Amino acid sequence: MKLAFSIAMRFLSSSKVQTLLIVLGIAIGVSVQVFIGSLIQGLQKDLVDTTIGSSSQVTITSSEEDNRVADWESIISEIDSLDLPTELTALSASADLPVFIDSGNRTLSVLLRGLQFPESNAIYKIDTRLVDGKIPENYREILIGKGLKEDLEVKIGEKITIFTPDRTVETLEVVGIFDLGVASLNRNWLISTIDTAQSVGNLGDAVTSIEMQVSEVFRADENASLISEALQNPSLQVTDWKSQNEDLLSGLNGQSISSIMIQVFVIIAVSLGIASVLAITVVQKSRQIGILKAMGLRDSTTSFVFLFQGLALGVVGAVVGIAFGLLLIIMFSTFAVGPDGEPILSISLNYGFVMLSAIIAISASTIAAMVPARRSSKLSPVEVIRNG
């Protein structure tokens, strides 16, 4: 093995330009794979955070006509006791009902959301998205979005009158203004405590949903399935964000396929490059190989000479490629920024993906070296020296 490795290094050093070019080719392939892969993962993370990052990822609702989830506190306790596939990062109840606001010249239809504070902050982050005021603590206190505030022209401390579909009229006090970063929600949500929403909607002690977030969003469906099996309640239905966002999931899958295609192209490019260069090396070094065989070098050792060349080229190319890829990421994050100084596109650096890129390059270069290795082992020393 040591002899084969020594000969392999000597062959590589004797063709410095050729070796440098193939290392550079592997490095470019790996760097592109690392950069584009990290960019795609960043886009996926941004897309997920924007669409479902601040919303329920697993939801329990009622399948009955009254849309009420009774005994919700015991359901939450039961869920807390389950050994779920992925950890819950948030678990809270909400009581939602449509209400109307008479703004003088028109009637606005909005959603009154009774949230369980402080638990719901883990999902909606209301505490960090207050523009002004405070979180509702008492009965008949509400938050309104900044868009609705502009529509109604109300201030903190003022009261608004709402009425429900069954014509129940309630007067609520505005104690804060929120900005969820989504214009439609800022114009269509009123946020109160669960008690307030239960009273306005005549829900009794019931809620309309139990909401959860998970640590691994793409495994939310696994949690939903296990929770549904554990509850064994036909009046409840457990849904996850995947089943409700098929278009989003299709887009994410498309991005993942793009990343896989990049890996495939890198594998093909590396394999063809290594195979062709080492095949040329077999021809160029055939006389030396013939002499070494005549001196007693075994066929297996000859094969290892080329396998070690492929391995060495792959390792060096992968290391240089990772360095180039990380440099590209740093440059992109530094210079591709918006007016606010933040990167125009976020990049998610996954060290597991970086290692996978390196392993793919090294494996492809080593496997590609098998063809010239096999060819070298079949060289006849007598014929090579005679024709040499």
Could you explain the architecture of this structure?
- This protein is an alpha+beta fold and 388 residues long.
- 56% of the residues lie in helices and 18% in strands.
- It is built from 15 helices and 10 strands.
- It has a 6-stranded mixed β-barrel.
- A hairpin with a 5-residue loop joins strand 6 (159-163) and strand 7 (169-178).
- The longest helix is centred in the last third of the chain and has 39 residues, at 246-284.
- It is elongated and about 100 Å long.
- The two termini are 27 Å apart.
Computed structural class: alpha+beta
| Poorly predicted segments | none
Helix content: 55-70%
Task: Tell me the quaternary state.
Answer: single chain
Total DSSP helices: 15
Shape summary:
elongated
The number of strands is 10
Number of domains: 2
Give the overall average pLDDT. 82
Main sheet properties: 6 strands, mixed, barrel
State Rg: 32 Å
- Largest beta sheet: strand ordering: 2-3-8-5-7-6
In a nutshell, what does this entry contain?
The protein contains 15 helices and 10 strands. The longest helix has 39 residues.
Give me the secondary-structure topology.
Layout: H1 2-14, H2 16-51, E1 58-62, H3 72-80, E2 88-102, E3 107-115, H4 121-124, E4 130-133, E5 141-145, H5 146-152, E6 159-163, E7 169-178, H6 183-188, E8 189-193, H7 194-200, E9 209-214, H8 220-231, E10 236-240, H9 241-244, H10 246-284, H11 286-294, H12 299-335, H13 351-368, H14 370-377, H15 381-387
Parallel strand pairs: 3-8, 5-7
Antiparallel strand pairs: 1-9, 1-10, 2-3, 2-6, 2-9, 4-7, 5-8, 6-7
Helix pairs in contact: 1-12, 2-10, 2-12, 2-13, 10-13, 10-14, 11-15, 12-13, 12-14
